[in-house]
Amino acid sequence: RVSLSDFSSSGVQFFNLAETDPNLKGFNGGFVTDAHAYYVPIIHRPGSSETYHGYAARVSLSDFRNSGVEYLNLAETDSNLVGFAGGFVTDTHAYYVPGRTTSGHVVRVSLSNFSSSGVEYFNLAETNSNLKGFQGGFVTDTHAYYVPYYNGNSNGYGAFSGYAARVSLSDFSSSGVQFFNLAETDPNLKGFNGGFVTDAHAYYVPIIHRPGSSETYHGYAARVS
Fold first, then answer.
1. What's the pLDDT tens digit per position in 189-215?
2. What stretches of the chain adopt beta strand conformation (E)?
3. Would you say 41 and 73 are in contact if contact means Cβ atoms under 8 Å apart?
4. pLDDT tens across 40-58, in order?
5. CB 20 within 8 A of CB 71
6. Residue 12 burial (10 A CB sphere; 0-12, 13-18, 19+)
7. Is 2 helix (H, G, I), strand (E, B) or coil?
8. Per the CB 3.0–4.6 Å rule, which of 86, 116, 146, 201 could disulfide with 134?
9. What is the pTM of this model?
10. Number of Cβ within a 10 Å radius of residue 89
């Protein structure tokens, strides 16, 4: 981390999470509360090849070193809870976004019980098989939002996805899911990378899709009421 009041080499603090546990490496995104910095697990190389992992970590802001680290392996709760692509936080839970094309397992962990017993999860893909392969997300007072990127399904739109999903915070289960396919409005509305929200709209940031025979970056920005 770097001090905002000393944004230079002299304002840098750092340590190696992997000295706490060698699995604490290979993260993709993070978020912060008043008390902790959170790191989102995606992939590392524990042996001879890379593999997705589920080692979620947080560090105390007042003890930014190995002694301030807490972590859990989400995959010990369910082996599908690996390979996340970003996350976000509410007053009560840390949320992890499923990034793999083979899994739509969304996860949240209680901030007051950052352990396996504080984990809740379910598989969005059981609601619709296209609800997987997200890239980032965001949250309002009522819903968690998941940004469509690449789900591996063709369905006439290529493997890049326009399937936007949200889940009720008060019903974090398959019954709390709402979704639709942005690409049904325009076939270019797929392949997003992150998003953000206002009081009135959800915004999706364009990155890449496949309008023809090859992948290409695109600029088709979208917002939804």
1. 999 999 999 999 999 999 998 766 678
2. 27-32, 36-41, 43-44, 51-52, 55-60, 69-73, 84-89, 93-98, 105-110, 119-123, 134-139, 143-148, 163-168, 177-181, 192-197, 202-206, 208-209, 216-217, 222-224
3. no
4. 999 987 776 779 999 999 9
5. yes
6. exposed
7. strand
8. 146
9. 0.94
10. 18
